[in-house]
Amino acid sequence: MNLIENIKEGLRSIQSNLLRTVLTALIVSIGIMSLVGILTAVDSIKYSIDQTFSSLGANSYDIVSKGYTNRYSQNGRQGKVYPPITFLQARQYKDISGENARVSLSAFISGATIVKNGNVKTNPNINVQAGDENYLINENYNVAVGRPFSTSELENGANVAIVGSEIGDKLFKGKSPVGNSIFMLGRRFKVVGELEKSGNDMGGGGADRLVIIPLITGNQMPRQKALTYEIKTMILKKENLFYAMAESTGIMRKVRRDPLGQEDSFEINRSDSMLKSMNEITGYLKVGGGLVGFITLLGASIGLMNIMMVSVTERTREIGVRKALGATARQIRQQFLIEAIVICFLGGMAGVLFGVLMGNAVASLIGEGAFIVPWLWVIVGLLVCVAVGLISGYYPAFRASKLDPIESLRYE
User: Fold this and answer.
1) 3-class secondary-structure state, position 339
2) Cα-atom radius of gyration of the chain, to the nearest Å?
């Protein structure tokens, strides 16, 4: 009997004991389903988290003047304070970056501001920010009522504003603020839009206590000290983030004219610290899921070995006949190993299929995400099945190959 004939004989044996084969394969499939299902669910949830954080700026980074707004220390000594990023420098950076990234420019105009509408005024806790045409989308601000700034308003520095929901509720008592005027910082502004309610942001009110004006308008307003402009660069492809940050460093050094050998006069801050924490959590979930799947597979392998041992006992007479006809111990081992591997592989295929479906179903209950097929875990699951078949089937196959043909023929 050659290997091909041995495989055919093993398959015929499986077909003749179909019910036992199905039950044994189910034991393995449950173990693989738990392993692949948990890992698929984790991957799908991670993908959903990545997409959510991407929309919140996980694929972006901010460029600010070093030490201008927040003084810092180096080795216990006060760090050097560099000049602010000027409007011209920010525009040069944006022009050089071109279409490789979506760049927004902004400047903090005032904090603790009072905004008025007639005799009604807010508390002195309003922030005023100036931004360009990409500012709203890069900061993930959505206009609930009204519209964003028009091109002419941005280019001409019109006295228009987009207000947070808390400001609109306070000054206009539930009515739409769009088309009305507000007074702040010595100027009157026409409200063209109202932002969606965002809730508190670390106690600061988030976008609810924010007034956004065009960048040119903010640049023209009187102030006590020079504005420093903040640059946010949004990368459309996450895998290009580190390359883009290195490229931005080179552009900013050129724009700021930092001498060769001198440290950067600016800071680049990534916006994905929370995403890193979530990735660590999903990593722990994968380890936990893998342990649960391993324990289940361990139980499945013990069950498979027990069933194969029973199969050897039931087919003792058949083994004696095969040996009497010239089958070698190696061929007998091959036959039982092939049976064990095929049973595990069939169970593994079913387990992978149900595991992928179960994992995506669990992920869809937690949050909206794409249908994920984790090919790595599919391949690992099938390889584990083959390994379980080899390990669980080897001892029964070895025992079958050592049976004495005379004693086997006498077995009842």
Assistant:
1) helix
2) 34
Return the higher-pLDDT residue of 252 and 269.
Answer: 252
Q: How far is CA 11 from CA 8, 31, 170, 342, in A?
A: 5, 23, 78, 8
- Cα separation, 125 vs 242, in Å, equals 37
Same domain, 331 and 233: no
Q: Are residues 47 and 114 in the same domain?
A: no
How many domains in the chain? 2
Same domain, 192 and 267: yes
Q: Is the pTM of this model over 0.70?
A: no
Q: For the residues of 231-284, what is the DSSP string, one character each?
A: EEEE-SSGGGHHHHHHHHHHHHHHHHTPPTTSPPSEEEEES-HHHHHHHHHHHH
Please list the residues that pair with 214 across neighbouring strands.
131
Shared domain check, 303 and 221: no
Residue type, 362: V
240 and 113 both lie in a single domain:
yes
End-to-end CA distance of the chain: 26
Residues 203 and 232 in one domain: yes
pLDDT digits (tens, 9 = 90+) for 130-150: 999 999 988 888 899 999 999
At residue 204, the pLDDT reads 44
Q: What is the pLDDT of residue 3?
A: 66
Domain that holds residue 43: 3-53+276-410
- Asked whether residue 90 falls in the same domain as residue 219, the answer is yes
Alpha-carbon distance 317 to 412, whole Å?
Answer: 7
Residues 319 and 401 in one domain: yes
- What SS3 class is residue 145? strand
| Helical ranges in 315-328 per DSSP H | 316-324
Residue 177 near residue 162 (C-beta atoms within 8 A): no
